[in-house]
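Human:
Focus on the backbone:
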Amino acid sequence: MKVLHISGPAQGGIACHIQQLQKGLAPLGVSSQVAKPVVAAPGSILKVYREIKKGQWDLVHCHGFQGGAVGRAAAAMAGVPAIVTIHNTLQVVGPVRLGAKLAESWMREKTAWWVTVSSYLRNYAWKELGIPEARMAVIANGVQMPAEIPPWQQQPVLGTVARLIPAKGIDILIRAVQLLRPEIPGLKAVIIGDGPSASRLKALTEDLGLGGTVEFLGYREDVGEQLKKMAVFVLPTRSEGLGISVLEAMSMGVPVIATAVGGIPELVRHNHTGILVRRDDYGAIARSVRQLLRDKERAEAIRRAAFDNATRNFSSESMFQRTLEIYQQVVNE
């Protein structure tokens, strides 16, 4: 089977997800290619249409709202079935939001199947976008799980992995670090990722006098190894479809603190597989970090429960198999 992936200017979680599918489905007989990122414009549709016709693809797998709009229109022109994965809620407002919803309505009959990465997004797609439940499947993001839980780094190192954009709330993590530094000797915070807010966040760090405490590592290929160096993982996000970085932290045995937004509560059961806090509450983040660093027994129980839950319910193998089943169903219809 030949599958062409189409997305907007995807970075961070969406780009990693597509790479995962491309690599993980290859041994299962799926030959896939990732097209150049697209923007929602008529010229983009024509370019993708030509690529579909040239490559003789069996299926077009679209990701996100821009990728979904362009990819499905081009696939319909080429007579090739298309599915779309919804990774997050609409992140636009005003006329652009209305236009996106109208485009989704127009694309409804041109879509063979929808996939959402969380139950939260399935409900959102049904209620807000009018997508029929009968043609939706929830396939959660998955991670490659080690055979056993890695050792826990107990030094006072906090960390996060995120695209540096306002929606990820990294400014909230930095403010939590400001509260914690006076009372935790040797405290460090590591921020992995890049994005348009990088310079603003670095300026905030300097303004708060945290230049020697907060370290920006930028984009890294060795995320797993960096996670092993953290005592606590914090995702202070303001919007999240599911939270692949939370799963990555759990797979490395790092206790997680995250905001109770979007699909995060599907991963983090409060005080069992992690700690949930309210959005923008850096005081709560600071209190939770303090508790985990002081109560080693509680932190150990949380990280082990999270590792076991990720192993059972969020493995990459399960994600690959369920995705393949959707592919086969659509292509064979």
In short: Residues 98 and 224 are 39 Å apart (CA to CA). The radius of gyration is 20 Å. The first helix runs from residue 13 to 25. The domain at 157-313 is CATH 3.40.50.2000 (Rossmann fold).
